[in-house]
Amino acid sequence: MFDANLIHEHQYLTVGEGEAARAIAYIARSQSGQTTGPTLVWLSGYRSDMSGSKAIELDKFAAENGFACLRLDYSGHGASGGKFEDGTISRWLEEVLAVILHTSPERILLVGSSMGGWIALRLAQELAKRQDGPRLEGMVLIAPAPDFTSDLIEPNLTKKEKASLAERGYFEERSAYSPEPNIYTRALIEDGRDNSVLRGIVETGCPVHILQGMKDPDVPYQHAMRLVEHLPADDVVLTFVRDGDHRLSRPQDIERMLAAVKGLIR
Known about the structure:
Rossmann fold; 10 strands
């Protein structure tokens, strides 16, 4: 089986200063041959990393077609340093922006899964403010979870979870994807409100293709429909996968992701 990690080793970039400094791991695949196109940038979901199946398949697609590809692990994830419990949307966004500016692609196409979709939308907003960043040419958002802390977590908190947040600063929740529980901190939830994108119009300035499973137990498909309403200025395609779950990692789901990427590159 193709293993992109064996071809390109991890590199590290220190983001932040003093006690906030953390080593962010990334893998940058260079463009090859005469291929022209944007650098494909993978943005993982909450508690996921760049060694997941969708990230690997995106890198494999880049290698086979000569495209540049950039993957990274947020702090507290995968091969990166830092504590997971210190993570917030602002912190992880800072790391993504730092790695992108450090590697200096001229054009990028973002592929964001779950929370990575939220970070992709925020990244578009931050890049629009800058003169030194790459041109954003498209987004593929897989089961995007913008504002999940305020819209999907907070409204469903139990009394026990609210008490844990107040007393301990976090609460734990059983994960369907890992033996370790999910940890949601008060800092993550409060910072999430500051990074909300579903309170007004989001102008990405690029075409967007959203892939959403209709049997997603974590992000309801209605959430994707709501996101479309906040993207009125963009060329948006929303594809529902009737039997799709949250991960959308089956072979047929991977094919849909890569087809969406190909469509935006064209």
